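Supplementary Methods, section 5.1.

A reviewer requested that the exact input to the structure prediction be made available. We therefore reproduce it here, unchanged from the version used in the analyses.
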Amino acid sequence: MIQDIFRNRDIVIATKHQKEDVIAPLLKKELALKPFVPKGFDTDSFGTFSGEIERKADALETARLKCLKAMELTGCDLGISNEGSFGVHPQIWFTQADYEIVVLIDKKNGFEFLIQEISTQTNFNGGEIKSYAQLKEFAKSVKFPSHGLILRKAKDTNEQVIKGIRTWKVLQETFNLFYEAYGEMYVETDMRAMHNPTRMKVIERAVTKLIKIIKTPCPKCSAPGFSIKRATPGLPCSQCGLPTRSTLKYVYECQSCQFSNEEMFPHKKEYEEPTFCDFCNP
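The structure derived from this sequence is encoded token-by-token as follows.
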């Protein structure tokens, strides 16, 4: 049984932003793990959303580094971490997206599992502010005060930054401080998980999907994590028959024995609409 590989083992959650609130219950329920958070572990040293510390590696490598560091500090052979990025959706232009990566590393058994989740459910935004009325309008549009805000002197400076604003009183006081000093300021959403319930839900969905992958055994050796290794495009157009960019098949692979299997037409259709054909609709 896959659950026996993980049952009653300690797992360190590499976070300082309360992600354990959504990650820990899932690990306990689905894999019978005993999750904990390392004391004094500073994930900000790997980079901050607000820019004071630059993220030196990409999101995937940063997630791995955080996980391995937490495991090293605690002496735990099992760890999980998450790293998020925000910006324009890669397929839906002019739409902001939350891009979350979750990595689980099992040194004891030599496994690494990961999931990538892209969601348009995000309040990620920012803008220049010159009046409190303008600030109030922005705040309401990004779900404040249930979601935190950051105020700074200007967009491209870290000279003066106040984060984690979660009440109208503090927002007004912080506005006054910046307005009296500079006459304007820059506001942005605080994307740290504990100040952003919308992001926390995306992380929860990502972890749920990761656990589903882990609980899928290899048909050949029964190792956990039999999952999609790559998606192959080429679904034919229903009008001209030429290959489109849409997915023709998934290739699943076991990281333990390297057994692979193909799933044709994973989206349950054998042809793509001409709308999505580069020849019919260039």
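DSSP finds six helices and twelve strands in the chain. These observations are discussed further in the main text.
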